[in-house]
Backbone:
């Protein structure tokens, strides 16, 4: 008989090894899936993971990893702070949208004036947009004890309606022949979040993500506030005795994650996406939740997880085009990754025992 | 038969070889970027049928590749770039939101030809193409106006963009012509493909008394909702949706991209490809009308087919005056026909429609 025994201490070994095991299990079962679809499993996995990094056109795909990964990392860093403290912001997608709308709106308000001050103003507006949207669930929770999971999630759909309204109304390109969507910020120099070095994929959003990672690392490792975050998540009662003010912590965690999601939205709309359109949001806010957990809520882990997710997206599209794999198979493959990670996570806190369970 | 096909394709391949070897690969490679899944049963499904028709018609001389479910924005740019890097000679980008990305990538690959569906931006190596779906909508409107008993016709709009507004206007004008009491209820789903939302929209409309539901979204969910309700008429959208015939689906608008895709691929092969703007309707066959089922009375069917013939040969235009705008101002004088520019950017309802276009 096989049974599980709770470890007296969470295993540090497994905490580090499970992401790797999860990736290997995904390779195995993903390979079986691809084989069942009549594709060469090895070639499929090589195409997804090898081609973007070391293939013939890696010079193009490597920068794309940064472009795809930066918003994921930026959002996930913010979310991880709250998640560590048991404050669940599920609505980063909405905060991402609001950041993009505030930021793009700020930029478009100045059109066609050119000034070096416009982009910084947009960055501030984007951060503010995300922050204020996250303040709604935060204040409701602090004041009325509402559930921040529900409120933040529901506000995603409200934000999507705002996005549609802005694309069709206020921010619509007056030269767009009645079609929805704003002016393209890529064609407005002062507002364009261009690559800092052309072809490198390194735009200001990537820089912001790196800064956020360093800040989060220092905050959690060295700062009193980081201590408050950790202790609240691990032992809420102890936190209260340690003088942590739960209301302030809620405002801080939701506010920070909202702000970072808003920044991600702003950098995306002003750079790679270029315009506010009805379908602007593509799920970064939700995928970032996976990234945060895949990265163990640790800043460095989140960077790696963000890049890994970006890799599966980019490689997945290549596999679709080159091998004719259906998009759904790629999504299942990505889903497996999270599934195995969560499943194997069990071994961090439990260990397998063989033989009869001893009665005490 | 088989031998001749084989020989024919061999001949095509040989004929091509000279030109094709020059740019490094033998087959002409055609890429397709799809916004939905190829199994959506509607928009993307028909584009994919066009892709398969290219393979069938041109055989070994072509290779097609596709990526489905591609988000509009940077993801679509990456997919296009990847296809171009992998040696595509011609890339069809099949959603309005791919417009700026297509133009961006086309600049980087001047030797690759691009074809963007439903947009308005062109370049030396970017063509645009779309179909005059509003011609099919006129026929739907006619049948709908005749079939409704409650005089309430439901309409599931995707996004309030000119393409969709044109369809609503066209259907309404022709429904009202045969049934002056008819009323349109419009629900905006803000999606092209989302079976759950589309089903909800259909149910809301049916609850409001609609006994005909028109859809400008791509899934068959509204058809299923109508079937469940039992007495509601629907029309297939983008694809025939024949599995719901003869009732609730009584007819359909079918997008037939195959002839266009084959012609454009051939043009790339023989070097005659040029940047153009194509807007074809029932006449050239880009818009097909799915079989009108027996659920429609014979006389109505006859009138509908007569209208189809008149539109096809150009003797009738669905937007022919006298027509007024919703606010009562004059739009088209008696006998005047709408110009393509106005139609392309249509952002107003015609007189008689209620509600406002969302802004």
Residues:
């Amino acid at each position: 008989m096989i049974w599980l025994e709770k470890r007296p201490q969470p295993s540090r070994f497994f905490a580090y090894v499970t992401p790797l095991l999860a990736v290997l299990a995904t390779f195995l079962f993903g390979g079986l899936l691809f084989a069942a679809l009549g594709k060469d499993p090895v070639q499929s996995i090589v195409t997804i993971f090898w081609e973007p990094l070391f293939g013939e056109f890696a010079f193009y795909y490597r920068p794309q990893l940064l472009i795809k990964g930066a918003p994921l990392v930026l959002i996930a860093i913010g979310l991880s702070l709250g998640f560590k403290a048991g404050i669940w912001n599920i609505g980063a997608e909405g905060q991402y949208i609001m950041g993009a709308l505030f930021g793009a709106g700020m930029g478009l308000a100045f059109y066609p004036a050119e000034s070096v001050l416009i982009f910084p103003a947009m960055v501030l507006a984007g951060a503010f947009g995300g922050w204020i949207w996250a303040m709604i669930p935060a204040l409701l929770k602090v004041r009325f004890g509402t559930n921040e999971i529900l409120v933040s999630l529901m506000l995603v759909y409200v934000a999507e309606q705002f996005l549609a309204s802005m694309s069709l109304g206020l921010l619509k390109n007056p030269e767009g022949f009645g079609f929805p969507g704003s002016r393209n910020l890529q064609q407005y120099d002062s507002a364009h979040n261009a690559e800092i070095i052309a072809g490198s994929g390194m735009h200001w959003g990537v820089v912001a993500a790196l800064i956020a990672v360093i800040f989060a690392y220092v905050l959690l490792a060295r700062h009193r506030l980081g201590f408050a975050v950790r202790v609240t998540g691990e032992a809420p009662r102890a936190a209260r005795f340690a003088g942590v003010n739960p209301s302030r912590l809620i405002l801080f965690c939701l506010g920070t994650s909202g702000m970072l999601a808003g920044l991600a939205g702003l950098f995306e709309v002003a750079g790679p996406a270029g315009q506010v359109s009805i379908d602007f949001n593509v799920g970064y806010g939700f995928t970032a939740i996976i990234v945060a957990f895949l990265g163990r809520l640790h800043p460095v882990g989140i960077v790696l997880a963000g890049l890994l997710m970006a890799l599966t997206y980019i490689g997945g599209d290549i596999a679709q085009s080159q091998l004719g794999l259906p998009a759904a198979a790629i999504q299942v493959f990505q889903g497996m990754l999270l599934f195995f990670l969560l499943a194997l996570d069990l071994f961090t806190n439990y260990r397998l025992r063989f033989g009869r369970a001893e009665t005490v | 038969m088989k031998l001749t096909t084989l020989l024919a394709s061999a001949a095509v391949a040989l004929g091509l070889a000279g030109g094709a070897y020059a740019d490094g690969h033998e087959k002409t490679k055609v890429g397709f970027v799809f916004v939905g899944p190829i199994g959506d049963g509607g928009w993307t499904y028909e584009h994919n049928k066009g892709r398969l028709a290219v393979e069938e018609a041109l055989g070994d001389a072509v290779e097609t590749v596709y990526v489905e479910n591609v988000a509009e924005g940077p993801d679509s740019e990456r997919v296009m770039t990847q296809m171009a890097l992998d040696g595509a000679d011609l890339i069809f980008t099949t959603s309005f939101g791919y417009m700026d990305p297509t133009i961006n990538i086309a600049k980087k690959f001047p030797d690759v030809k691009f074809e963007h569906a439903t947009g308005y931006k062109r370049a030396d190596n970017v063509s645009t193409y779309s179909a005059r779906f509003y011609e099919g909508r006129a026929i739907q409107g006619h049948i709908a106006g005749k079939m409704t008993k409650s005089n309430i016709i439901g309409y599931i709009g995707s996004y309030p963009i000119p393409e969709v507004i044109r369809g609503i206007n066209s259907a309404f004008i022709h429904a009202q012509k045969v049934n002056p009491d008819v009323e349109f209820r419009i629900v905006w789903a803000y999606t092209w493909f989302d079976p759950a939302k589309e089903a909800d929209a259909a149910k809301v409309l049916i609850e409001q008394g609609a006994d005909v539901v028109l859809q400008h979204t791509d899934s068959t969910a509204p058809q299923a909702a109508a079937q469940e309700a039992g007495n509601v008429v629907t029309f297939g959208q983008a694809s025939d949706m024949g599995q719901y015939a003869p009732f609730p689906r009584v007819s359909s608008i079918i997008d037939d991209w195959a002839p266009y895709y084959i012609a454009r691929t051939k043009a790339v092969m023989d070097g005659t490809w040029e940047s153009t703007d194509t807007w074809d309707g029932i006449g050239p066959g880009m818009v097909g009308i799915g079989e009108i089922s027996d659920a429609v009375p014979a006389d109505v069917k006859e009138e509908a087919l007569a209208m189809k013939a008149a539109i096809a040969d150009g003797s009738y235009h669905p937007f022919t005056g006298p027509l007024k705008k919703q606010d009562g101002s004059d739009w088209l004088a008696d006998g005047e026909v709408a110009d393509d520019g106005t139609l392309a950017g249509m952002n107003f309802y015609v007189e008689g429609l209620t509600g406002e276009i969302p802004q």
